[in-house]
Structures are given as structure tokens and as C-alpha cells.
Amino acid sequence: MVLPPRPTFVAILGHNGAGKTTLLRVLTGQLPYQGSVRLGGPEELRTLRGPALARRLGYLPQRGTLEFGLPVRELVVMGRYRHHGLLGTYGPADYARADAALEVVGIAQLANQDFRQLSGGEQQLVWLAQLSLQAAPLYLLDEPTQQLDVYYRQRVFELITSWVEVDKRTVLCTTHDLDSLPGLPGYLLNLSRPRPVLVPISPEAVRTEYNFLARKGPRG
After folding, report:
1. What is the CATH number for 134?
2. What is the pTM of this model?
3. Considering the domain boundaries, does residue 78 fall inside one?
4. Closest to 97 (Cα-Cα) out of 128, 125, 136, 132
5. For the segment 165-217, what is each residue's pLDDT rounded down to a tens digit?
6. In the chain, where do the E strands start and end?
7. Beta 9-13 vs 57-60: how paired, if at all?
């Protein structure tokens, strides 16, 4: 798969077991692979580690959890972790970035609340705000709207569109939420097809992929 040279959004589709999450884990260096993968540079992905990889991409796995109480603002500022290293500390500039990120996702009023007390949709916006602080050219999102209601699904995709069109980032997003895709700029990539290719998003293209996935089971 070769992405367009300009920043873009790619919705990665497919049945359960088609390899959507596996693809993201390969791109984040969590799984070995055969062949060649390059992320905006000449270096092979398998040679990138730590800060070198963090400069290329940010990753949001499926619904994160937190086992202890932490104010939202403190959780969001941790998105600057890879910019400071293990022994680094967060300064006023980092907290200003965190406040701006919370403002962008629309939950600045929740900055001092305990993350565990938020709704599922609010928590997901917190994770997205944290991800945005990594300021990488490529963001990988694994089912970011899973189990969210219509309001929060819309908010998530509005934020993704802003990352692409305003911040000039490329976003790869696995999703089963085909209902939210018509009208978005970008591409579809259906991993359940024998030869997956990038297809420009349109209402007709979304309907075609929906019918394909509904007609064919995970094993075809």
C-alpha cells in the first residue's frame, strides 16, 4: 500500500480477523513482518526505535483504561512524554499545549476532573487530546469510535478531519463505523477484499463496501 504524498485520511475496513489491528501493530513496531515498510523516510521501519519512531507516528489502541485516579489535564500532558524522555519533566509550555488540546476536542471544562469519572465518550476525547500532543505526521487509530454514541462518533471524525485538513497529518483509522464515513475526505481500504486498494470515499463507495462486508463472511 502506497499512501498519497499529501496528508490524508484512510478508513481501514474488514471483517473481524481480517488483520486491521495487526496492520497497526506492524506499523508501530510491535510485530515482525516480511517485506518493506517505510514511514515518510528512507529508513526501514524495523530499524526505528524509541524517539525515532515516535517522531514518525502516534498510536491510539482500542479503548484505553486507567487503574488509578488522575486529573484529565495530567493525563493529557503525558502525550509529551516521548519529547522529554524517561527522566524529563513537564513545564508550562507542555501544560499550555495540553490545555489547548482539551479546548480543541471540546472538553476544557473537564481538565481537573478524575478521568475515571468521565463517560466513555469523554474518555475517548481525552485519549485523542493526549495523542495530538505527540505532534507526529502519522496517527494510527484502532476503532476510536467503538461503543460510542452518535454524538461522540461525530466528534471523533470531526477531529480526525481537522488533523488532516488543518494540521496536515495523515490518519489511518480502523473502523466498523461505516455510517459515519460518507462525506468525509479520504480513502477506504477494505482488508477483507482479495486485493485491497485505496478507494476514494463517497456515499457510493461506502455502500459498496458495506454490501460486500454484509454479503461475505470473515472467511468469504
Report:
1. 3.40.50.300
2. 0.88
3. yes
4. 132
5. 999 999 999 999 999 999 899 999 999 999 999 999 999 999 999 999 998 76
6. 9-13, 57-60, 138-142, 170-174, 187-190, 199-200
7. unpaired
Q: d(Cα 181, Cα 66) in Å, to the nearest integer? A: 30
Decide if 203 is inside a domain: yes
> For residue 91, what is the enclosing H or E element?
none
The answer to whether residue 194 is domain-embedded is: yes
Q: How far is CA 94 from the centre of its chain?
A: 21
The domain total for the chain is: 1
**What is the residue range of 142's domain?**
9-28+52-215
Q: Is residue 2 part of a domain?
A: no
139 three-state secondary structure = strand
3-class DSSP state for residue 13? strand
Residue 124: how many CB atoms within 10 A of its CB? 24
Q: Name the DSSP letter for residue 114.
A: B
Q: 63: helix, coil or strand?
A: coil
At 179, list the grid cell.
455510517
Per-residue DSSP letters for 34-62? SS--BSSSSSBGGG--HHHHHTTEEEE-S
